Amino acid sequence: MNKEAINKARAVYYGLFASLLMFFENKNDLEVIQKTIDILAQNPLDDESKLAFTNMQNLLISGGYTLLKEESDTVFFSPYSAFIPVTASYFLENRDDGKKRLEMVNYVLSSNFRRDTEKFKEMEDHVGFIMLFMQKMIEEELSGNEKSAQLLREVFVNILNPFIDDFVGALYIHEESHFYQELAVIMHSFIALERLYLDVKKPLKEKEDQAPKVYTKEHKKPRKPLTPRPKKNFEEFVL
């Protein structure tokens, strides 16, 4: 198993998620996002991700920055569409600025990475910031900082893993989600593979038949269940 190659690929995935889940106004961000999608599309995690990458590429070709910005605003900020929480605290404590934010602040303070408050004004347990933190920890591990690998695993176990399935599920079924529905497919497959890589189990529901939390108001188009089939051969998980 080529651990370095796998970590480089993981960092790119986390970086893409961070870019698409954080508020952005700079049109130059689109070029980086498109290039990242093009790179990852060359070696997708599974058939579902392959199709999702193709759909994302086509949507960006046809709609560009305007499409991405408008859908992001509608999905995450519009009061006229379904509400999707974006912090670990809200998903796990039904409120923003909760204990999970404090936990995440402590993880950040234990690392060499700091939140740039000029560029990122959201809370530390915002899903976009968590993805960015994970990317930075992998990059530091690649530079020889072994502590970063342990911090990443702790954040995954204690912060990201408990709520990410509900976030992805809500994103997937949001009535105005098109580009972001494709992102949800890719995130679902990636998280499944990340759990295998980090040897972390999917959190158990209180009841076996308990459905994921849903924050959407209505379903305007049919949604197939998310059924990822991630590659278990980590040698293939490279750029």
Mean pLDDT: 88
- Give me the Rg, rounded: 17 Å
Strand content: under 5%
Task: Write down the oligomeric state.
Answer: single chain
Q: State the helix count.
A: 9
Low-confidence region ranges: none
Largest sheet: none
Cα distance spanning the termini: 14 Å
Number of strands: 0
Strand/helix succession: HHHHHHHHH
What is the overall silhouette?
globular
What percent of the residues sit in helical stretches (DSSP H or I)?
A: 55-70%
Q: Class by helix and strand content?
A: mainly alpha
Report on the architecture of this protein:
This protein is 59% helix and 0% strand. The chain is mainly alpha-helical. The chain is globular, with a radius of gyration of 17 Å.
Give the arrangement of secondary structure elements.
Blueprint: H1 3-21, H2 28-41, H3 47-76, H4 88-93, H5 99-109, H6 127-142, H7 146-160, H8 164-173, H9 179-198
Protein name: Formate dehydrogenase-specific chaperone FdhX
Biased composition (Basic residues): 218-231
Organism: Sulfurospirillum multivorans (Dehalospirillum multivorans)
Q: Would you summarize the structure shown here?
A:
The protein has 239 residues and is mostly helical. The chain has nine helices and no strands.
